[in-house]
């Protein structure tokens, strides 16, 4: 929860907004007194196990397939350092700052539950990194989505030890030791079990899931707007979106999408121009227009399911072994990422299908056999000008890529650790490709908005609905009205920014009020 601009972290679940505030907006964090008390109590039990002659996994043994070796007390500090250093084996491009900050916050929350046996000082150091805006360098590859996001989390743990590299608040790359010194943060000497407690969680894939749900929630509403603009500019009908028709098939997301489209199209002069049956001989619109609420609605319901899974995970404490309330320290399999991996894959299907339908609507604008009186390719002088011909190629290329990204990662288990970890979730990989899918969907919807706005202008003197006209005005602040061919790539990027930053929704909602 927020407390004077600071996200407080305790045993209670974090909210989606907490994750967004810390990951994207750089909010500072503070551990609650309840968290410190819970960690202190659990740590006492871990210290007792560390002093016992009976081996305890993660406390006085090796890890994974090496868990059969009992580690002498004199070597246990080295054991923790070795665990973190060896597991910080990521490779490839750097992961985005927002993902790493989300991962750090979510690991901090699990520590704060008191079920990991971490010392409060170690958790406070992790909180201090977040508050100081220091982001460990984490790499694309290294997590199998089981036994936690091991390599990504190990790079964070390495920073707590004063090793590795970080990005500061301005994005500058620094050695961790130097950055911690400048921020007046003391490196941590890890004690028994702490290395394992820092790296054994689903925090990376969960963080990316929360960010994806936030983005898709906005993009699905934007898809309702872009579909409405296309229906309007293609002289379609809004009668199929009537609530009494949606009620015949009571999917909640479908009803919300249809209601949004009705509100966006209200007051359209273009729609009014062809309501007379004598003047309009078409019986039904194409599926990409008529069935838009069914597809966007199914996407909504899928995102709602994913949000329920993420909410349960946000309420969890993922570590192995776990310290229970009665003092027992028990091995478990809660680190397996299957629940998250499945919905991450499911959301990539949603992104691909929404984009596929959007591209089909765009394509209809460009074909004189289907665009009902608009010029070929919406060109100023067809033949001399190509209009939006290649913008649709760009959409098609992205949609094809999204279909490849929709192939599930979660079915592709591969064994590791000498067959001790013989089934893994690949949830991290599912999350990474979903981020690319969301970027692609954003671009496809932006090109539909750009094309539909051009078509609405070409319908003059007929007037669009006040809400769709507001989108056209917002776009025209950076993209000129239709005319001879111009350098199109910057105009597409301007539309992408308008969609990604919520400008399309903001323009509509100033007219309609908040959409569903």
UniProtKB/TrEMBL annotation:
Keywords: Histidine metabolism, Lyase. Pathway: Amino-acid degradation; L-histidine degradation into L-glutamate; N-formimidoyl-L-glutamate from L-histidine: step 1/3. GO terms for molecular function: histidine ammonia-lyase activity. InterPro entries: Aromatic_Lyase, Fumarase/histidase_N, HutH, L-Aspartase-like, Phe/His_NH3-lyase_AS. It comes from the Bacteria. Transmembrane segments: none annotated. It is an enzyme of class 4 (lyase). It is found in: Cytoplasm. It catalyses: L-histidine = trans-urocanate + NH4(+). Its EC number is 4.3.1.3. Its main location: cytoplasm. PANTHER family: HISTIDINE AMMONIA-LYASE. Belongs to the PAL/histidase family. This is Histidine ammonia-lyase. It comes from Actinomadura luzonensis.
